[in-house]
Design goal:
The chain is of the alpha/beta class. It has five helices and twelve strands.
Length: about 200
């Protein structure tokens, strides 16, 4: 299957899915909102936006979306989770522990930067993706506490991993869709054209 011939799916349960769409528009990448598990058959990759991970989990259980995303990733189709999306993709979640999809071998700690009032905009480094500092917006962001074997660290901020990749899974603790820098989205769109399995 040629993932690159299908649009990027954006999970449209909650979070800033409209801003992800706007960012994809800026790089002329076609996209489609995903609201039901059946919508996954029409897309080549999936972006899981930020939001409230526990609320998203309830929807996953009720709609069968969690198992559908696991199957989607199992076929080698790329999945990119930002903030709460990254929490859902992780193998282990702390503070407190919660259900997750376990698709990337990382441990994340929820709300590790503090409350929403502690949100910040920082400059980070993604040397394999860009030759310039990447603007990173952190909102009640998790911290990646452990990176498993086989997981590549693509981005760091203050020495801490903030963008990681394993196979067809990309996870980031910041919100690139809230900036004007398409670096991460461009990289993810490129993943759709690679043979990832």
């Amino acid at each position: 299957m040629n993932n690159g011939s299908k649009p990027v799916g954006i999970l449209a349960i909650q979070g800033d899915f409209a801003m992800h769409a706007k960012m994809l528009d800026s790089i002329a990448a076609p996209w489609k909102l995903v609201k039901h598990a059946s919508d996954l058959s029409a897309v080549g990759g999936l972006i899981m936006p930020g939001g409230e991970s526990t609320t998203m989990l309830k929807f996953f259980v009720n709609e069968g979306m969690g198992e559908a995303i696991k199957g989607f990733a199992g076929e080698g189709r790329p999945v990119y989770g930002t903030c709460a999306g990254a929490i859902l993709l992780a193998k282990e979640v702390l503070n407190p522990p919660q259900e997750k999809l376990g698709l990337i071998d990382i441990t994340v700690e929820r709300n590790a930067y503090g409350r929403q009032i502690d949100s910040s905009v920082r400059a980070g480094e993604c040397p394999e993706l860009a030759d310039h500092p990447v603007e990173m917006v952190f909102i009640r962001a998790p911290i990646i506490r452990r990176v498993g074997e086989g997981v590549r660290v693509l981005g760091r901020c203050g020495g801490v991993p903030v963008l990681v990749e394993q196979g067809s899974i990309l996870a980031g603790t910041f919100h690139p869709e809230l900036t004007n820098d398409p670096t991460v989205h461009r990289y993810f769109v490129g993943m759709l054209g690679r043979n990832l399995i």
